[in-house]
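pasting for ref. prot 1 ->
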Amino acid sequence: MKSRYKLVSGLVLGLLISTSSCTDQLELDPTSVITNASFWKTEDDAKGGLNGMYVKLRNEALLNLYIYGEGRSEVMQKSLAGTLDYDRFYLNTLNQAGAGPDWIGLYSAVNAANLILKYVPTITFNSESTKNSTLAQAYAMRAYLYFVMVRTWGDLPLRTTPTEGFDPETTFLERSPAADIYKLIKEDIEKALQLFPDNAFTNGRSMWSKPSVNALKADVYLWTGKRANGGQADFTTALAACDEVAKADVSLLADYASLFKYANKGSKEILMSVGFRYLEVGDNYFNNIYMAVGALPANAEAASKAIVGVSGGNNVWEPSALVRNQFSTDDQRRAGTFHEVYTTGANGARNYFISVQTKGQGTVEGGVRFFVDDIILYRYADVLLMKAEAKNALGQDPSTEMNLVRQRAYGAKFDAYKFVNGTKEANDAAILKERLLELMLEGKRWWDLVRFGKAFDIVPSLQAQKGKDHLLLFPISSNVLSLEPKIKQNPGY
């Protein structure tokens, strides 16, 4: 029943929201009676356009955002059920033919934001603040999407107006320098912050808000501070953005594991998430870091049977031993992130079987597990660690923020793990590791490694390839190269 539901719902969803880049190749006028000129007339139209923009983001959050942000790091390894070609990410064997997900879906979401920015200013709203919030969310979305893409591929086609026709001169663009992309991202962030009326969140915290845009701002300026020669000025801006986030209704939850429960969406720790719901959309990427039905052996330990509960998904890749072994057993984030399944042998020996993630166990309905937890883009602990990073880059003591995160992680045993300020290099190493322990499986690790300049030191498959800096970017896929004739492959691929 589950597979049938997924097939039907996937077809319906695809018919409703898909936009094919292949049509860019056909000089044909659309036959639909609904056009942009006739649609963007009312506040309800604007709401529909806004919801469509978030649906496109959710399409990318199903799997692609995780691949871009974490798949190539040291976090994952092969599991029981083959690889599904995911090994090319953590083994870093990408090439033009096997480039991973491409940017077409991301640009579709950018186009949705561009449509809002073009047409919403012409629409009369009952409330000016609602109109401003709608525009702010579109600016925020465009900034976020370009930030994902510029870190993934570098130079990009810069599209700031919607693609509404089939004119090759406006449809097919060459790549603009990454510096121009960062300039647009920062401009969009400032426009969004100016337009949001206050620090309020929407119900569920699954739409852009002023606090979440400030989290994005901190992320962007830390990146450009370290990767684009922004230096002290950018670190100062990142620190100020973190301070702005703290003015909102945010706090750390006392219980780390509760953050990720299906029944606890939109908690005070969440700044921005991508919303998933049972019967609304298919499984997200946590599906393939769990355990297929029937895969749990009969001689698995009782504790594992209780924790895994109803099997589901597929064990295509799993948390790597390299990373699992960095978690202390005193750290509640260990159990809140993964569980190691052991079996009991005939002689009573414990034998390692598999590791499953515990951050995205979803919900069980009718005896079937559905992986529909929200995908968190930003949360308060992330901001605290970004603040620690910014302070350290500025020569300030990051102890306060580091210890707020560690106090939650270690509870009564915190004193044994208390962070003590050291050299800038030692602090950076500690902050990078803390981000691993705190944010593992949330799509952050690869970008953290690149930002800190540690990818070639830490990722096993890259350690023998130092100097091949082109590997820090993804290749452009054959699909994109065939559809967009002005796009050239990234050097080195």
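and prot 2 ->
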Amino acid sequence: MASTGSQMMAEEHQLQVLMARQPVYTKSQDVVAFELLFRDNEGRFVEGLKDDEATLGVLLGTYSSITKKGVVKSLPCFLKVTDSFLLNNDLPELPRQNFVLELLGHSNITPELIARVKDLARQGYRLALADYDPRDPKFAPLLNIVHVLKLDIQLLGLDNIPPLLQQLRTYQLELLADKVETQEEFRRCLEMGFGLYMGYFLSKPEAVKGKKITGNKVVLLQILTELQRPNATAQSIEQIALQDPALTYRILRVVNSAAFNLKREISSLAHAITLLGIDQIKRWVLLFLSAADKDKPDELTRNMLTRGRMCELLAEMMGRDEPINHFIVGLLSQLDVLLDMEMADLLEQVPLQQDMKTALIERSGSYGELLRQAEYYERGEFDQLSRALDRPFYEVAYRHSLNWSQQVLRAMQGS
């Protein structure tokens, strides 16, 4: 498989900051950018970028990259910037196409700052304004300069937004609905005409009562059930898989991908099981169980993969038993969203041991604890992280998990 935690810490460039990324979506729920979440409110991180090519390389190489239809591409990152960063004439030569500079609501909007922002816009930088308060006149001069305006829908209140949008029509702004927490809020913002969206609305299931698992997911569950049987054989597992030859082919494509670093090509599922063992086959079956259907965005699968791998790495780093089970719990933690089913109903159809099911429903036990750690990290809630690990381990584990999910998704989409 991949490197262990201690190997990764030795191999990877260590950032001086904890950092996660949050997607920026279009109306069709495609990801068009990422906002960087980092723990350093004093601005040392952004101001330090001018002297830190290695960190800039990590940002552009990992935090901004995404796999779409099997191809890796780089998306722009929203970078929260301080007044001093903007006013410092020694601004690092950031690649303009890779960053959107995001001004914060608590900025001291002086004539000097306005002139500087105008100059940056003239130079070709994309600019966003966050924390906009329509009652505060200090923001008015910036509305003719910035390109993206973020509106916190929780703070403003959905019912108050339509008249505000009328007032903003005179400006050439791309409007971003921020803190969109449910699918219902997403639909209302869509009707209002927002172009961009941020928030955790993809993480909430819209449970359809009485829904059953269908399609190739049924075959995958049958394989998982067979994998649990003590007298299962490579041949008995392969027989079930062959009910869906296209699925079997796609699993083999992933097995042979760079994500698994194999020295020789594997030509059949039975061969793979014999060579690499049932635990690894279980991993791949679960990967395909987590693959988004056509009506769900790829970002959901990407997040499930990243979260699963991060749970596994944290388990390895903390010396927990059976890291693979932590991977499974992390991976399946959003299967309810993917399948639009309540987690408890869903788990009645998924063959898992009881402590893993309990972790998925209650976030309890060793599995639930590390799942919570991964969730805290991906939301940028760094103060909630356990002291069981030094902080840099979390960032390296997260970054490695992003890269790993890219490789796997690329193999899955290319199949």
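The chain has a mean pLDDT of 87.
The longest strand covers residues 31-38.
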